Records
---
Amino acid sequence: MSENLKVAGGSPLSAGHGSLAFGVPTSTPGTIYALAIAGGITVRPREGRTILFGRNRPDVHVCIGESDRRVSRHHGLLTCHENMWWVNNTGRLPIRLPDSRLLFTDDEPIPITEGYTPLFVRGSNDREHLLELYVTGLDGQQPTSQHNDPTQPPRTWKLSPAEKLTLVVLGQRYLLHEAHPQPLSWRQTALQLAELQPAAGWTAKRVEHNVVAVRTRLSKDGVAGLTRDEVGEPVGNSLNHNLIRELMTSTTLVPPDLRLLDQLDD
């Protein structure tokens, strides 16, 4: 963000800031957090406050897709109106919200709900550029389950680097928040991994071995729906579908993990 481009009530977020999927600090109710790979901003609510995002770093508050000319220099706006934050598309490409809802240029703005919302802009070579949003609720943070009791964090599962990479590729449609995602096949996953790491010797068998190892560990630790006996025939994609859902629900995998594929590709 340019030093001369500031928002009243706003504070910068560094490029190294953790994913907003893990939550945010206690803040004024209605505060919005906006974060991309290059950093972001947090802004307290007030009528008319606006956050610009797009490719042109000197002229936006949140830079997204800086090296991708398919992303517009000014791709969108986040505006506070009537105690809510709204997203408006000012770029050429649509902005994709959860459930594969597309927001096109000149469409009516869409309200951003409380909590976590990922936005995606598809760039060149099918790259997906992520803008994470988080709007705090009435208590200024995430809802708690028991009045003043502390919120118990989700249990995340330990994955080796190879397992995590395999599962990010296998489950990328889930991380992209497609409407009806399915896991990639062993062969599709191996082919993409081989493109990302040509010298690593990726095969469909190796992919299957990594995924089955994770399913077995989690099943022994009490996660349901990861064995053939539980699911029944025909199994289809059910075991991997249930695995990916568990990894996302536990925040073991989150949408920013897709950056790993960009970094490997680079």
---
Amino acid sequence: MNDTVAKHAQKAEETPLAKRFRGFMPVVVDVETAGFNAQTDALLEIACIPILMNDEGLLYQGEPLNAHIEPFAGANLEKSALEFTGINPESPFRKAISEDEKVAIRRIFKALKTIKKEHGCRQCILVGHNAHFDLGFLNAAIARTNSKNQSPFHAFSVLDTASLSALAFGHTVLARTCKIAGIDFDNSHAHSALYDTQKTAELFCKIFNQTPMITITDSQSK
């Protein structure tokens, strides 16, 4: 291990956020898409919110990063999916950025890398409500834009708020779970990547902040 890697590893061990998540920085991600097939259907919106920790050890939301994306060349657009989200891919008011230009995805990745470094974490881990859906579309976009080396995310590990919600509140639907948890949820704003990400992040922080971590001994952690 060279000095740079050793120094980074030591920093990750010393920060409370890195300790809490084994060196990972949780990043809540939500995508809006034109279907369910990550390989063929368009990615239309993406939003990411890093989860940080204050001096009292409580999690809170960092600044959101989001973008509207133009469908990639040859992308499938399912009419039912567009009707469900209410997104018009051709609307000029979306101010969408071409996925082929790689600007949106790499801008978000660059910002997340800076934040995770500032907080002593070695990698980001995707947090989502039914997280593997979001990770599938994110990984597909990474492959299409040849951005694997720029991605700060773990390739397959996730933290899923649907599972956490089942444990904490006995429910898995985001809107319903938020209401049970005392979090305002406006259905008229649902299916916006930014709004859903903000609510998922609020839910994630509430579950972790209200659930004490089970203390384990050093021998158990090895």
---
Amino acid sequence: MTGWTALLLAGLVEAAWSQSIKPTENFTRPLPTVICFLLAAGAVWLLSKAMDTVPVGTAYAVFTGIGAVGAVTLGVVLDDDPVNAGRIAALGLIVTGVVLARLA
């Protein structure tokens, strides 16, 4: 697995992790809590693998960018979070930054 593949997967797992927090109900439900911690650990492990070849600053910026866009997208799809021009513009800027980080 290349560093960039690991980084993409890490960002996707982070987005899934973001959605796994609420079902824990403040970490009072055992199974959702275990799933939440496993997703968090998986995201960080994949990020660490990506950092074997991708510079740390770039890897972290891309990781959080993918996670943020994924979290907002999942929120819109799964939780009916609001969609408006400002949010779409912000996500577009994040995606642009991730693409530029990859190309640089």
